[in-house]
Design goal:
The protein contains eleven helices and no strands. By secondary structure, the protein is mostly helical. α3 (40-47) packs antiparallel against α4, α4 runs parallel beside α6 (107-117) and α8 (139-157) runs antiparallel to α10.
Length: 198
């Protein structure tokens, strides 16, 4: 029962639709402009870097807190359960109950989960992501590389842990949510960082 409550709480926390609520306060629903995605990148393109950064940080905090709050409350959680809570938060971000199940792609929330699961692997991953985005100017490519790189690093650092196998669920989720981006990347039609929303 306790574990079910933790999972539910993680999903509800991940469901907080940061981009939707912030954009509505600014006079628009972010899901009706630009790419239509309720995430930090579309917020950046539509409302500027300050709003985009605020969205990213809040969504990241959701993922971090979803994994950590039971620990803060004094409960001991195994790493598989920490991964389960993080996955629930990412799914909540993608399918938020508070926004009719139309959310973002889960990347910022995943960053928070990564920091909670393994801050060293997360820091290395973020460095790699920044390098990919700086060189290619494709945020989607950086997100895809980041998901795979973190899973690989986590599996390497924790090879004797059963979570090392389950960790691959995270990049799989990111690949699924970015399937349209992958198609556009392959066609050379993906929008680059710095290009305004249409």
């Amino acid at each position: 029962m306790t574990q079910a409550l933790f999972l539910t709480a993680a999903y509800l926390l991940g469901s907080i639709p940061t981009a939707v609520w912030l954009s509505r306060r600014l006079g628009k629903d972010v899901r009706t402009v630009g790419s239509g995605n309720a995430g930090a990148t579309n917020m950046l393109r539509t409302f500027g870097w300050k709003v985009g950064l605020a969205t990213f940080l809040i969504d990241m905090l959701k993922g971090y807190a979803a994994v950590q709050w039971p620990i803060w409350a004094g409960f001991e959680l195994s790493s598989p359960w920490q991964l389960a809570l993080g996955t629930a938060a990412v799914i909540g971000h993608i399918f938020p109950i508070w926004a009719r199940f139309r959310g973002g792609k889960g990347v910022a929330t995943l960053v928070g989960v990564m920091l909670a699961l393994d801050p060293i692997a997360a820091a290395i991953t973020l460095g790699g992501v920044i390098a990919v985005i700086a060189l290619s100017r494709y945020v989607s490519l950086g997100s895809l590389v980041g998901g795979l790189l973190f899973a690989a690093l986590y599996a390497y650092f924790h090879s004797s842990n059963p979570t090392a196998r389950g960790i691959w669920i995270l990049p799989v989720i990111i690949i699924i949510t970015h399937r349209e981006n992958i198609r556009r990347l392959l066609r050379g039609q993906e929008r680059k960082l710095g290009e305004k929303a249409g």
